[in-house]
Amino acid sequence: MEKQADIFYRELPKVELHAHLNGSVSFQTIEKLIARKPHLNIEHNMTAIRNGQRRTMDECFRVFKVIHQLVDTEEDIFMVAKDVVNEFAADGVKYLELRSTPREEIKTGLTKRRYVETVLEAVKQCKGDGVDIDVRFLVAIDRRNGTEVAMETVKLAEDFMLSTDGLVVGLDLSGDPTVGHGRDLLPALVRAKNCGLKLALHLSEVPSQLEETELLLTLPPDRIGHGTFLHPDVGGSQTLVDAVVKNNIPLELCLTSNVKGQTVPCYSEHHFKFWYQMGHPSVICTDDKGVFSTDLSQEYELAATTFGLSHEDVWKLSQQAIDCTFAPETLKQQLKQRWIDLRPRVFR
Ligand SMILES: CNc1ncnc2c1ncn2[C@@H]1O[C@H](COP(=O)(O)O)[C@@H](O)[C@H]1O
Ligand SMILES: [Zn+2]
Q1: Cβ 80 under 6 angstroms from ligand 1
Q2: CA distance 48 to 26
Q3: Which of 23, 122, 233, 289 is the most exposed place for a label (fewest CB within 10 A)?
Q4: Cβ contacts of residue 89 below 8 Å, gap of 6+?
């Protein structure tokens, strides 16, 4: 991260609903990982996209491969997860839904089950240390891996949902949007929905996904990641917009991710404007705070300065995000109370 957001945005209590674990690894943590694995010859410019830089989506997905090389043992995952949770807390995030793709690494003996357990152990340790943040986890399906792996992932998520006292709340569908098709993943997603896992799906992140989005909206998902190409002005359709509105599906919007990944030409043309003006539930998120060199305070500040939002508007935006979480009702109520308690400090 290169520039700090104004104090109002840092002190604003925030909810982060769209954060990929390995995309959220900070410069400092990358430093520690590089020191652990000098033989990989990985440099910082291979793991983060600095301000003013742009990458194609393809290049973005190559960055994740580099980070995955650096994060391939239980120890690495534990450290990364702890650091990421602490960093979000330090940025004023009070509730975080973290997502990650369970990975098997034959070389190091890492299994998908241990992968998830390790992330959850890190989350619990943070809680035990008194870090001021509530964390929940979404198990991610990488769309490139197809039908069978998706189904296995759902089964794993289901097991964890039942055995972790509500820490695992749902499923994410992510991965390179130019690879694979949602129709192959539909049976796994239907199963997930039927067993009570909440669904946060990356939809229409690139222009070519109209048909897939139409299909996956029939589930319907509980939240949509990006939804960049849903509306008719950018090649989507009114039918898609109507389906999202009718089902009241919140959108997770990640300004810097979309601008740096070049699916949106500039901040002022971000689809936040379209959905926010309609009064549709829209949640500002980071996506990959490490890779895109940002944090949630900065994303709120960027939304405010780009679209002329007052501090009061920004406050409402962060408060309304509570209702878009997959947290149980009791936790939502506690969070709403926190917002009330913290307000005088933020507006002093
Ligand atoms: C930029 N837009 C994006 N679109 C789609 N998927 C993305 C993404 N950013 C990240 N991921 C997904 O998250 C993984 C890295 O974190 P984890 O190893 O799971 O913790 C990536 O490999 C990709 O599958
Ligand atoms: Zn994402």
Answers
A1: no
A2: 9
A3: 233
A4: 126, 131, 132, 133
Q: What is the ipTM of this complex?
A: 1.00
Report which DSSP code applies to 265. Answer: S
> How would you class 9 by CB atoms within 10 Å of its CB: exposed for 0-12, middle for 13-18, buried for 19 or more?
buried
For 308-342, the three-class secondary structure string (H helix, E strand, C coil) is: CCCHHHHHHHHHHHHHHCCCCHHHHHHHHHHHHHH
Q: Can you tell me the distance from the alpha carbon of 9 to that of 257, in angstroms, rounded to the nearest whole number?
A: 19
Nearest ligand 1 atom, CA 103: 18
Nearest CA residue ID for atom 8, ligand 1: 175
CB 76 within 8 A of CB 114: no
Tally of residues, the chain: 348
pLDDT tens string 240-289: 999 999 999 999 999 999 999 999 999 999 999 999 999 999 999 999 99
Question: Ligand 1 within 6 A of 209 CB?
Answer: no
CB 88 within 8 A of CB 16: yes
Tell me the pTM. Answer: 0.98
DSSP string, 46-60: GT---TT----HHHH
Give buried/exposed letters for 185-195 (b at 16+ CB in 10 A, else e): bbebbebbbee
